[in-house]
Amino acid sequence: MKKLASFALVAFAAACGTGQPNSPDSQLAADDPPMLGVHWTKDEAARRAAAGDINEAAKGARRSPNMTYHGGKIMPTAVSKIIFWGPSWSNSTFVGDKITGLDSWYTGHSGSNYAKTSDEYTGTNGQVGATTTHQGHIIDTSTASGGGSTSAILNEVCKQITAGNIVPDAGGNGYYAVYTDLKRGNAGYCAWHSAGTCGGKAVQFAFFWNLDGDAGCDPQDSTTGHSQGLAALANVTAHELSEARSDPASPGAWYDSSGAENGDKCAWTFNVPSASFPNGTAWKMQGEWSNAAYTAGTGYPNSSGQKGCLDGH
């Protein structure tokens, strides 16, 4: 879900229906970067969708489900680098196929049909493109912070920049994904993305829990051969990167009348068992919302029956 301004938690609550105790934003300090594109768990997403349907019915009318443009920038490309944060990332049993798998996911994403599901969106700095660049990963075995503080995750990104492990993209298209070894516990979300600055340079970043054995964030992939933990991370990774490309920061770019970004609108809906990337890998990933597909009637339905999702297969 889109947070409209990093300095106005109350405005965000009004726009997106958050600010409740189970909302990750409710605990943020006023000067923290906003949580954007929060990928709710299956149960929480269903609860919020039902509440939204009830609210719309009470108003007596349905708004257009399409996203609208709010005057901000997009990411014409993304230059990604992964940070694996936490002591468990030195444990080969814990790591399994996750490090190599996620590097392969980001590398394969460039030029894929899945990347092209977000290419219709434009902003003040151009149009989203399908070409992305992946710069590999960093392993930081210090104790990780959870997802309840965006500043803590941004500080980890800035630490790696200061150490010379990340060179921020000169065009401001750096996207730094922080995968921790921490379990979700009672948090109602699987991941989120955000934006901030390190040394005066704009960065986009994202947070991910350890999703091993996590039923609430599991896409139930039975065809690709990936471990459950990697499959879960790949699906939420697809959600967050697509949203970061089409709505990276305040002021916002593309989201709908309830604040939902393109990943939010198709969360937990899967039209095909898997989609292939140009590097030969296959992944079970949710669809991404396309205004053009909805208008043309060529998309598949999301959980509300709105036919605007594209699967990139």
Q: Give the mean pLDDT.
A: 89
Measured distance between first and last alpha carbons: 25 Å
The strand count comes to: 15
- Count of discrete structural domains: 1
Briefly note the structural class of the backbone: alpha+beta
Major beta sheet, specifics? 6 strands, mixed
Which stretches are low in confidence, meaning pLDDT under 50 for 5 or more residues running? 3-23
What best-fitting shape do the alpha-carbon axes yield? globular
Q: Over all CA atoms, what is the radius of gyration?
A: 18 Å
Structure annotation, total helices: 7
- Give the neighbour order of strands across the main sheet: 1-8-9-7-3-6
Topology as a string of helices (H) and strands (E): HEHEEHHEEEHEEEHEEEEHEE
Helix content: 25-40%
Strand content: 15-25%
List its traits:
313 residues; alpha+beta; 6-stranded mixed beta sheet; 3-stranded antiparallel beta sheet; 15 strands; 26% helix; globular
Question: Could you characterize the architecture of this molecule?
Answer:
The chain is α+β, with helices and mostly antiparallel strands. It has one domain (9-310). The protein contains seven helices and 15 strands. The chain has helices at residues 9-16, 42-59, 92-95, 98-109, 150-162, 228-246, 291-296; strands at residues 36-40, 68-69, 79-85, 122-123, 126-127, 133-140, 174-183, 189-198, 201-210, 254-255, 275-276, 282-283, 288-289, 300-301, 307-310. Strands 1-8-9-7-3-6 form a six-stranded mixed β-sheet. Strands 13-15-14 form a three-stranded antiparallel β-sheet. Helix 4 runs parallel beside helix 6 (228-246). The longest helix has 19 residues, at 228-246. The radius of gyration is 18 Å and the shape is globular. The two termini are 25 Å apart. Residues 3-23 have low confidence and may be disordered.
